[in-house]
Amino acid sequence: MEKILVLTHVDEAGNSMPKAALETVAAGVELSKSLGAALTIGVIGGDAQAAANSLVATGARILAVSGTEFAQARYASDAAACEAICRAAAPTLILAPSTSRFARVIPGVAHRIGGVVDTHISAMTNGDGGISVGRWFYRQRVEAVLRREPRPWFMLLDSGTRAPWSGEAGAATVENVAVTLPALHTTVSGVRAPKQDEQTIRPDAKLLFVAGAGWTKKQSDGQVHASEAESTILNFLRNSGASLGSSKSLVDQSGENQVVLKFMSHLNQVGQTGSTPRHPKGLSTCCHGEEPHVVGWRFINERRAINLDPNCGWARGKADVLYVADAFKVMAKLNELLAVRKAKATEA
Predict the structure, then answer these.
(1) Does the residue 278 lie in any domain?
(2) What is the mean pLDDT of residues 183-201?
(3) Residue 183 is assigned to a structural domain of this protein
């Protein structure tokens, strides 16, 4: 008989869970119902009780590790906390969100417990042959279905693959788990992060805005308008809350002594050698939509593009809507409309 444990942690605010953790909780609830198995949820954080209160409706047993030592991400403390919860719950299946905090910890915990681990899980099913999981290989071009007999089996679930858990909150009954910490050599003195309107990579944004190399090329007047391109794109990001992506050709220009967008880096790159984000909608501008780039759009549900070339890659079945127009003019008009809407919302 399988026993399921969902490992979670609180977010940076310290009193709630990140979206990826709630998605993993939803996966655990679904799997436990499918198997008829007992469900336990482990919560790690400075104030685990506050986060656990949002999980009452799951009906699961809740184990928690709390304290100032667990408020911030640290391999030594997080690994010890996860190990303690696993030993207390004695599960056969362990689900955890593939966040930056847990992705580096769970493989080590699996080794300590004597289990096996699979990462980047995007799907889970319970069939006649038992539990199987799906994950992507080769930049999301090949999907594999995996099964394992050894237990315990640790699974790191990718975010954006299912709806997050939502249920009525209440006063949760939490079992606190004692943890013996090793000597801690790392201390967190503070957090330095860009302002929200300066942060261009937003994984939870509803819209992905991709800029191509066309923004830095000569326009209809024969001139390059890089400064105008920068202000137009940044204004759109501030007004819409979109996440910024880039084609490989644009971010590579920094090493080719060509005009670049100052706020763009290889971290923004989307495609075969970049990232594969998961946003409900995507808007591509000044990008031809060639296959190495479009492969990074595999999980974008609704695709739109702006390009002056009616025969570009986007026009060949790779976009739901293609606007054959000047991106500078379209985005300028769009920024005007967003500014008006924002002003009306402020007045209201």
Answers:
(1) yes
(2) 78
(3) no
Q: Choose the final residue of a domain: 176, 210, 234.
A: 176
The residues near 34 (Cβ < 8 Å, ≥ 6 apart) are 126
> Cα(6)–Cα(63) distance, rounded to whole angstroms?
10
Task: Please provide the size of the chain in residues.
Answer: 348
Residue 68 lies in a domain: yes
Domain identity same for 260 and 118? no
Range of the domain at 210: 196-347
Confirm whether 184 is domain-assigned.
no
Buried b (16+ CB within 10 A) or exposed e, 185-194: eeeeeeeeee
150 and 295 belong to one structural domain: no
Count of CA atoms in the C-beta half-sphere (13 A) of 259: 15
Percent of the chain with pLDDT over 70: 97
Residue type, 62: I
Backbone angles phi, psi at 66, to 5 degrees: -125, 165
Which residue from 331, 323, 338, 341 is spatially nearest to 232, judged by alpha carbons? Answer: 331
Distance CA 286, CA 310 (A): 12
Asked whether residue 202 falls in the same domain as residue 123, the answer is no
Q: Which pTM was predicted?
A: 0.80
pLDDT in tens, 319-346: 999 999 999 999 999 999 999 998 888 8
Residue 255 pLDDT class (50, 70, 90 cuts): low
